[in-house]
Amino acid sequence: MKESQTVEFKKSLAEINEILETISAFANTKGGKILVGVGENKDGTVKEVVGVTIKGKEIENLTNEIKQNTDPVVFPSVEFVKMAGKEVLSIEVEENESKPVFEKNMVFKRVGKTNKRLSSQEIRKLAKESVDYNYTELICKEATLNDIDEEKVKWFLRKAKAERNFDIEPETPLKEALERLKLMREERLTNAAILLFGKNPQTFFLQAEIRCARFKGIEPLEFIDMKVFGGNIIDQRENAVEFVKEHIKLHAKIVGTERVETWEYPIEAVREAITNALCHRDYQFSCNVQVRIFDDRIEVWGCGLLPNGLSVDDLRKKHDSIPKNPLIAKHFFLIKFIEQWGTGTNRIIKECLSNGLPEPLFEIISNNLVVTLRKYKVTEEEIKNLNERQRQAVKFIGEKGKITSKEYCELAGVVKDTANRDINELLRKGLIKREGTGKKVFYSLK
């Protein structure tokens, strides 16, 4: 027995970096087996079988290292085998359907008995040659029906029947229901099945979480509150919306004889932005969907770029529905989370404008789509055209909600006449508004 295209020897688990490289190489080629506890000669033949002694949580730590450092995540088969009377750890890796498989930020391919690191050009070539696939439609290799929350499936079928008159009865046997929902392939669960209905999807997809944070002020520096929501992506959606509700204001006023309550931001716009992020994110990337709440805005960070054929400008007008995850989009449609008409971003815009807020921003930042709901109409371009004192004042109002002439003088270190000139210029530009009367006058952002 010797090292080959599909066999690699490692003396111990201390060679974890080389083990991870080989996992990437095998996954990008024809698969293979790593035998830990075997020393090799220069020609690749067995020099000695030393075996391995596993202590504590070493196997668990190994599988976590593999999950955290491979993208898309590789799930090898790990077991003990006997060689020369000693126990050797066998790590068996299958060829991955979705290539390239990264090890940290590198890609390897098996060439003979060595691992070759690929250049950026070779990585692009490997991606082009890979099978055309959608990650959420692939088989989740380690998952079984025991990993599915049956009660969540029944809830889904009841809601789908109520919302879309869907014809699968809630009491349909679990396996049959999942097959009819197209969530199984070759008698095995798909990634989408686990993301939608898994008892603990993060067992298989560490990255499938939504992170929510309320920051102090207008910069992402200091947390007031932060929560990470796991579980299935259906529950993640409502958990994230509830987090937003906890951290924005609810205004009440009397209209006629009735008390009318309105949120600081339209909840339907918030819910739509979060839904779109969960529905269209790239689940094989290690980033998370994020909801960031500041004093002056809410940002919803997706995970990945727009689908091919769509630009940021398209989101502001009528456009086709091009779901990045068709299976997830189909199931979100069935329970009326989305409409599949490409109108989601248009609804976000309409909700903001009809509630007196400025049009939301749609931007690509760090290769992610970011939707920003703004409380005020001041733009970055307008802020750039202000003097330093005025910029400080706008930031102060964003954090505190208002500023008085006295506070302006103290903040900028100027006399009252200078403060009044600055404030009057901000009023003329329509960036702030005057409120109150007499000695109680203050200024807030429009």
Count of helices? 14
The CATH class name of the largest domain reads Alpha Beta
Total of domains: 4
Return the structural class: alpha+beta
What is the terminal separation in angstroms?
76 Å
On the 0 to 100 scale, the average pLDDT is: 90
- CATH architectural grouping of the largest domain: 2-Layer Sandwich
Task: Give the C-alpha Rg.
Answer: 28 Å
- Largest sheet, strands/sense/barrel: 6 strands, mixed
Describe this structure in words.
- The chain is of the alpha+beta class.
- The chain folds into 4 domains: about 5-130, Methyltransferase, Cobalt-precorrin-4 Transmethylase, Domain 2, CATH 3.30.950.30; about 145-205, no CATH class; about 210-375, Heat Shock Protein 90; about 380-445, Arc Repressor Mutant, subunit A, CATH 1.10.10.
- The protein is built from 14 helices and 22 strands.
- The protein has helices spanning about 15-25, 60-70, 120-130, 150-165, 175-180, 190-195, 235-245, 265-280, 325-335, 345-355, 380-385, 390-400, 405-410, 415-430; strands at about 5-10, 30-35, 40, 45-50, 70, 75-85, 85-95, 100-105, 105-110, 115, 185, 190, 210-215, 225-230, 250-255, 260-265, 290-295, 295-300, 360-365, 370-375, 430-435, 440-445.
- A 6-stranded mixed sheet has the order 14-13-17-18-20-19, with helices on one face. It has a 4-stranded mixed sheet with strand order 1-2-7-6, with helices on one face. Strands 5-8-9-10 form a 4-stranded antiparallel sheet.
- Strand 17 (about 290-295) and strand 18 (about 295-300) form a beta hairpin.
- Helix 7 (about 235-245) packs antiparallel against helix 8.
- It is elongated.
- The model has no long low-confidence stretch (mean pLDDT about 90).
